[in-house]
Every structure is written in C-alpha cells, then in structure tokens.
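Consider the subject:
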Amino acid sequence: MAPDQVTELMRHLLREAMLVSAPVLIAASVTSFALSLVQTLTSLQEQTLTTVPRLLIVVCLMLVAMPWFVRQMIGYTLSLFTDFHRFLG
C-alpha cells in the first residue's frame, strides 16, 4: 500500500469520525456555554449544575441519533470494503 493510499484512507476515516462525533460535541458545548452563562449571571458555582444536564443531553441525543450513527458507520464500512481491492495492489 502506497503512502498516498494510506493518507487517503486516514483522511476518510477522520472525516467520518468528525461527522459522527460533531452533533454530540456541539450539543455538549452549547449546553455547557448556556449553563456557564446562567451560573455567571446568578453567581451559582455548583459543579453538578453543569455536569448533570450536560450528561442528560448527551445521552438523550445519542439515543435519538443512534440510527443515524449506525447508518453512517455501516455506509463507511461498506464503502471501505468495496474499495478495498484498490489498496491491495
């Protein structure tokens, strides 16, 4: 396998990883920002006030979006296996 083929495989892998992880990371970031803003405005410095809602939102989002995650990963795996002959030689 040539270095350019390895680079192409890694580029596709990182793209898929970013695509699958982006919704969860964005939801966690927006939730953290909103809760930090509320904490700053109300002068509450309770650690569980930010952790519990963020965990709940991430878990709910992962449960709701799980079919989409699975479809994305199956599509990537199928495309990888169908194009595997290109990388063998």
Summary: Residues 3-88 form one domain. The chain has one domain: 3-88. The chain has three helices and no strands. The mean pLDDT is 90.
